[in-house]
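User: Fold this; tokens only.

Assistant: Input:
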Amino acid sequence: MKYRELYQKGVETLKQAGIPEAELDARLLLEHICQTDRNVLLVHGDREIEEEQSGHYLETIQIRKKRIPLQHITGKTEFMGLEFVVSQNVLIPRQDTEILVETALKHLHDGMKILDMCCGSGCILLSLLHYSNDCLGVGVDLSDEALQIAKENAKRLSLEAEWIRSDLYTELDATKKFDLLVSNPPYIRTSEIENLMPEVKEYEPYMALDGREDGLFFYRELLKGAPAYLNRGAVVLFEIGCDQGVDVSDLMKRMNMIEVQIIKDYAGLDRVVSGVFLE
């Protein structure tokens, strides 16, 4: 079968299954199986594909048809121009989270100490370390499996960081102080998880989604424990749900943080809250 014909078959199957962005997923899976890039579809669509590769591709299309995330099928995803390993044990990095990293980079100076709470795959901390010089990073997560993925990503990117299994601050050394705290914590209200896309609610780790009853539990806990671990003038940055900007800002202001701001994503939705710690 020819490359373009195989692609069209994949698109048709995914569309019939109601898969969002069927064309994109069909193309990315074909490129993954055939080790090609998007130019092949545009320029060499008449290329004949071996039967073994065709069969493998159609098998992966059937897997995606079951709403298993594309990134779990390929085992990787791109974030901030870098490739990260992912699995069902970590939240899949999303483009919206790049707003958090881009905002953090505006505050980051050489030699700073960065604390990434609820670090998951490590994509936030490792991106900050990659695009800065001589910064020190600590990533914290409660999941052993997530930390293993973070360590693998650090190795693949030739970056060094300290990874700590901890329920938020419980296992952190209180003598260590940080200049930047970043976090994309669980922030979805428990009652709303059932309404999420199947790819999210069925295949991503529940503990990385559940922000408890009002979605604000982890923001409160992170801010409550932060003073013991932050230097004066440290910047705190949280990714938030699009309707949580005012609430999280208020939490920061109650901690006497200054320069509290809400940053929007490319869709114009509230995505990040930042503030400066002066206690």
